[in-house]
Amino acid sequence: MTNQVRSGALESTSMRYHEFAMQAWLYSHFYVREGYPVPVVFGTPMDAFSKFKDLWAKSTNPFNYLFDLKDENGTPLYEPHPAVPRYPLISVSRKGWKYRTSQNYSIHQWRRLNWPTVADDVKREDLGYVTVSDMPMAWDYRFQITFYSTRPDTQAFFIESFMREFNRTGGTPQTWLPISYPGIGNHLIRLFMADESIEWETPEEPEPDKIMEYRTSINVTLEGYSIDARFRPVPALWTLIIGGGPATVDELTQISPIVTDNLRIGNNNPVLDDRANVPANGTNAQPVYGQPITSILSFGTGTPSTADPTYFSPSSYTYGIVSSEVFGNPVVVTL
Predict the structure, then answer these.
(1) How far apart are CA 335 and CA 333, in angstroms?
(2) Which of 59, 60, 49, 58 is closest to 85 using CA atoms?
(3) How far apart are CA 78 and CA 86, in angstroms?
(4) Going from the N-terminus, what domains does the chain have, and what CATH number goes with each?
(5) Could you tell me whether strands 89-99 and 40-42 are parallel, antiparallel, or unpaired per DSSP bridges?
(6) Which residues are bridge partners to 208 per DSSP?
(7) Rounded CA gap, 279 and 275, in Å?
(8) What's the Cα-to-Cα distance from 208 to each of 148, 168, 203, 306, 313, rounded to whole Å?
(9) Are 123 and 129 in contact (CB under 8 A)?
(10) What does the alpha-carbon distance between residue 69 and residue 64 come to, in Å, rounded to a whole number?
(11) Which of left, alpha, beta for 301 (phi over 0: left; psi -120 to 50: alpha)?
(12) Could you read off the pLDDT of 44-76 as tens digits, one per residue?
């Protein structure tokens, strides 16, 4: 999935994918009629209807599904532009962002995010890189949801429907909604009523020559995450080289290994095996002979006895304590 994410693009910003999740949740729960969602626009409560009219007038009107909506007598409820669009309407406006310390993970690096391939026929030798990024950063995304209608029964139905959606209280009215995060897929995140109240903002009297507008506002908080979309492919660990003595960076490419342990076979690479559906042993693109060797680590220049691999010659230790000095004041001997 990460190789399909455009880092720096608008759809990769946390503001955008949380707004998409909020919009999809509202469309799936609140209807003009069954199967016809209430239109949702993003804007302040004062600008909501004007933005609704601007979208209604476009050739790419995103709400043209409402043209199929008819009343009990078969009369269309909505007419194309230049007819004025009708209520009900939902507006969503941003109220700010707050850092959430209790669920933050961004101090850590995601070292096993995934592999930059989704091929089914991949071989173990092909898995040369792993994708890494920073872990998600926890932020609260706060919104004001405002519902507009011209009928009190429609308004009452919306309020009751909203109350029932937040019935999983546990102390605070809350629910969970699905979200698709860039690169890491689908998850559920918590949505709760910020001040645990629904505000009635309907004017006491309608303005002169205007239809009565019923308005209700609710402040909600979405417990979301900012995803590091700067996914970086880095080499995975393939072969462990075991040698004697220290080596500088320049010397690493020239050392003569005592033992090489191939981590691609025998299931000895935990990073490799973290990928789902890793091919089994024996499906390598090139044959690998034998099995991984269990190496003997020597901490000096000595050579282990060929008769007993667990025995080290005394000369193999650079520093040591004389064996006779078990207790008391040991003498450190430099050889």
Answers:
(1) 6
(2) 49
(3) 7
(4) 2-101+136-226 (3.30.2000.40), 237-312 (no CATH)
(5) parallel
(6) none
(7) 10
(8) 18, 42, 12, 104, 103
(9) no
(10) 10
(11) alpha
(12) 988 989 999 999 999 899 999 999 888 888 888
Cis peptide before 88 (omega within 30 of 0): yes
At 216 the pLDDT is: 93
CA distance 25 to 177: 7
Q: What is the rounded distance in angstroms from the CA atom of residue 132 to the CA atom of residue 183?
A: 11
Structure tokens at 192: 């709760």
Residue 41, by phi and psi: left (phi above 0), alpha (psi -120 to 50) or beta? beta
Q: What pLDDT shows up at residue 111?
A: 76
SS (H, E, C) 190-228: EEEECCCCCEECCCCCCCCCCCCCEEEEEEEEEEEEECC
Token reading at 308:
């007993």
- Cα 94 vs. chain centroid, distance in angstroms? 21
* pTM, full prediction: 0.67
- Token pair 């490419």: residue: 253
Identity at 166, one-letter amino acid code? F
From CA 190, how far away is CA 180, in angstroms rounded? Answer: 14
**C-beta of residue 256 within 8 angstroms of C-beta of residue 102:** no
Provide the residue count of the chain. Answer: 335
The answer for residues whose C-beta is within 8 angstroms of residue 235's C-beta and 6 or more apart is 128, 129, 130
Q: What are phi and psi of 161, to 5 degrees?
A: -65, -40
CA gap 68, 80 in Å, rounded: 11
The 8-class DSSP code of residue 246 comes to -
Q: Are 17 and 67 in contact (CB under 8 A)?
A: no
Residue-averaged pLDDT of the chain: 75
**Which residues does residue 190 pair with via DSSP β-bridges, in sequence order?**
176
- Distance, in Å, from the CA atom of 81 to the CA atom of 167, rounded to the nearest integer, reads 39
Distance CA 88, CA 157 (A): 11
Residue pair 313/303 in contact (Cβ under 8 Å)? The answer is yes
**Which pair of tokens denotes residue 176?**
């969970």
CA distance 230 to 2: 9
